[in-house]
Amino acid sequence: MLKDHAKIIHAIALSGEVIGRKKLQKMIYIAKKMDFPFQERFQFHFYGPYSEELTLRVEELCNMGFLNEVKEKKGGYYQYRYTLTEAGQEFLGMNAIEMPRLGDCLTDINTQNARFLELVSTVLYFDNLPDDEVREKIQTVKKSQKYTDEEIDAAYEYIESLKGRAVQ
Amino acid sequence: MEYSAEKLNEEKVFKDPVHRYIHVQDRVIWDLVGTKEFQRLRRVKQLGTTYLTFHGAEHSRFNHSLGVYEIVRRIVDNVFDGRPEWNQEERLLSLCAALLHDLGHGPFSHSFEKVFDLDHENFTRAIILGDTEVNQVLSRISADFPKKVAEVIAKTYGNKLVVSLISSQIDADRMDYLQRDAYFTGVSYGHFDMERILRVMRPKEDQVVFKHSGMHAVEDYIMSRYQMYWQIYFHPVTRSAEVILTKILHRAKHLHEQGYSFKHMPLHFYSLFKGSVTLEDYLKLDEGIFLYYFQMWEEEEDPILKDLCSRFINRNLFKYVEFDPAKEYKKLARLSVLFEKAGIDPEYYLVVDSSSDLPYDFYRPGEEEERLPIHLLRKNGELRELSRESEIVDAISGKRRTDHKLYYPADLILKDRKEHEEIIKLLEL
User: Fold this and answer.
1) Which one of A88, B60, B73, B175 is at 20 to 30 Å from B201 when CA atoms are compared?
2) Which ranges constitute the DSSP H helices of B21-170?
């Protein structure tokens, strides 16, 4: 019952604080690609993998008072910070979630910047394609980000290290 | 003459209740409509279980796909043609992608995909790129044409303007389904002035924008999306049917895993249960097949499968109460215990359904680059995000209206008021 909501609360609890909706999207997507059982569906949108289900679920959790959302103006746009509330803690206490390696992965992902996570999630989105096609695809769909070969190499390395952590 | 440029000797038209006529002149479009994979869409309803609430909603993904094609055809032939930002060489690609964008939808796809962890977009891609009639037709244009069509539908094609025609916050897909669903459900909301919207559309490098003078038509479209979501797509009775459908599929899968011996072997479901669905298996599935099994399973020994199927086939749906998870999750835990005690398995008969379970998206102004917003084009060439210009859109966009309902079988509970006294009290029956 409300297990999918509990999983998102659990992920934010493990991360401490998540700054940015985009970052939250990428964190859950990457965790899902590491085989953690999140149910939200992701599709490729203008800015990369995005889940409307996740957006709605986070809105619901804020409405329920389980998540705290702080909106702050940053340059030309708004940025949102998410933390767990006391009510969220209590809810989580009644809905134990078993994902033992998740904390380790999310803590690490949360320290990466949004640009890098956008690249990592895009590489993962095309993980059914061979390496050279993935690189070509990134230059096509992420033209404006101008990712370098070194950054793409770093993304591949990072994915491998995360996979190691996820199965330890 | 090259296949891509081949026209039919005489234009074909499909009579359509929404667009009046759907015009086909390109040989490739006509050939695609005739493929068996496209014809399968006649057997998949556009609105899944909604027909159990709005009896007119029997229209199919076939109707809708033709409608999306027709809207894109009107845009590229009548609005974009001749504009410097638009490359007319992308015309046929746009038309094929519009026609085929829903090709991979399965029967009652929302529940079906959730239970079996499938994604219709993967099957759309597999049908376009696999050993299929659709692939044969597309490959006649060029060897890489099927891949391009699949990329447009997957939103990973390089030319984002082409992608945005069928997938953006105001696209041909939504413009067709809002009007079509309104027509077939018989509701009066859902209508907007599409002709006006098409007239004020302008192609830009990465997206379609709208002349500022057309703002009120776009406002109407946004309102229509908002109303249709709450009045049709998230209708609580339809959600009840969806809950039961999901539970039927879960139960059948569970029984199979437990080695249960079905009286009526679920042959079409075996690969789904095993999680190894081939394209060939997938293309054999449609709603007729599902309903056939549900009817046969009414005769099964398993009381839960039998009961759920009977409820779905005979429209004896679960009742619901409003549910506030923040205040009532402890009550839910108690109800679960009471259901268990009463011999009514809460796994199948006590279900919370949330608005996030059916994410028909609302308009969002695009915070932090989450989604590309709708842009209005001012006379001086400046682009302005819609909600900054329109008070109406600002009032409903990005607002959190969420909803949760608790579904239960009222008939089973009320059968024995005395024994179920506490349940009745908690559910306030």
Assistant:
1) B60
2) 27-33, 36-39, 61-74, 91-100, 109-116, 120-129, 133-139, 145-153, 160-166
Please tell me if residue A151 touches chain B, with a CB cutoff of 8 Å.
Answer: no
| Type and span of the H or E element at B253 | helix B236-257
Cα–Cα distance between B318 and B407 in angstroms, integer? 6
- What is the value of ipTM here, to two decimals? 0.86
Hey, where are the domains in chain B?
Answer: 3-233, 236-356+403-427
Q: Which residue has the tokens 């004896």?
A: B316
AA letter at B137: V
- A108 beta partners: none
CA distance B250 to chain A (A): 15
Q: Report the alpha-carbon distance of residue B294 to residue B387 in Å, rounded.
A: 46
**CA distances to A7, A123, B96, B264 from B243, in Å:** 21, 35, 35, 23
Q: Structural domain boundaries of chain A?
A: 3-167
User: Across residues A45-70, what is the average pLDDT?
Assistant: 89
Instruction: Kindly state whether A63 is in contact with chain B, defined as any CB-CB distance less than 8 angstroms.
Output: yes
Nearest CA in chain A to B346: A1
CB pairs under 8 A between A and B: 100
Domain B3-233 has CATH 1.10.3210.10: yes
User: Is residue A89 within 8 angstroms of chain B, CB to CB?
Assistant: no
User: Which residues, in sequence order, are CB contacts of B121 under 8 Å at separation 6+?
Assistant: A43, B104, B153, B154
Task: Give the three-class secondary structure for B142.
Answer: coil
Stated length of chain A: 168
* Tens digit of each residue's pLDDT (9 = 90 or more) over B386-423: 988 999 888 887 666 788 999 999 999 999 898 999 99
Residue of B nearest to A89 (CA): B326
